[in-house]
Amino acid sequence: MDLKYDVYTITNAEGSGEERKYVRLKQYEAMTAHELEATIQQRCSLTKGDVAAVLSELHDIVVSEFSMGRRVYIPELGYFSLAVNLEMPADKPNKKITGKEVRLRGINFRPEAGLLREIDRNIHFVRSQYSSRSTIFTEEKLWAKLQEYFQKNRYLTIKLMRILFGLSRHMAQKWINHFIAKGLLVKDGTPRSPIYFLNDKQ
Q: From its phi and psi, is residue 9 left (phi > 0), alpha (psi between -120 and 50) or beta?
């Protein structure tokens, strides 16, 4: 399966004066509890009720094991462990450390090597056509680009807005709504496939 990613650049990373590139995967919504139960029911003899009961018991066991200071191991998935940090009072940085200064930060997960290998065989990384991070524009600069675009084109869509100007879907829609509110653009088409025109009556 293709997994899409974006590439980002950090300027002056770690004060070295150099640019540092990193990638971020495009994440989709997680499967809901009901979807998980239904999927497992389709793949084995367990009913959705059975699956829900197992997940409930697993939750209780995880809480109990963590509360006793143990790691949790789930076969074929990996190990889960608690992560903590130290929060010292700003006005007393040299204060004696007690349990009150230790805070639960989260839960670490160390996957089984076999799990990683299995996933790696099933995925392929592809650079996303649309960046999830938007190019920053001032209103004047973006409107000037849109006016130039409309000199050669009759209408605009969200998809074209994203491709032409490097905007996320959210920002493309936000800018279009802004220009509609100012009376510079007008909306047409259908609710599922809207198109936008330059307002000739402005």
A: beta
Q: Where are the domains positioned within the chain? A: 35-124, 139-198
3-state secondary structure at position 135: coil
Look at 2-6, 67-71, 131-135, 159-163 and tell me which has the smallest mean pLDDT: 131-135
Helix (H, G, I), strand (E, B) or coil at 67: helix
Q: Beta-carbon neighbour count of residue 16 at 10 Å?
A: 8
Question: What is the CATH number that goes with domain 139-198?
Answer: 1.10.10.10
Task: Return the structure tokens found at 189.
Answer: 């088409």
Contact 118, 111 (CB under 8 A): no
Q: In what order do the strands lie in the sheet with 72-74?
A: 72-74, 78-86, 102-111
- Token pair listed for 141: 């600069």
Mean pLDDT of the chain: 87
Over residues 4-55, the pLDDT tens digits come to 877 766 555 455 556 667 777 877 788 899 999 999 999 999 999 999 999 9
Instruction: Name the phi and psi angles at 6, rounded to 5.
Output: -110, 150
Strand arrangement of the beta sheet that strand 124-127 belongs to:
20-25, 2-10, 124-127
Superfamily holding 35-124: IHF-like DNA-binding proteins (4.10.520.10)
Show the beta-strand stretches assigned E in 35-151. Answer: 72-74, 78-86, 102-111, 124-127
Please list the alpha-helical segments (H only) found in 44-122. 48-67, 113-122
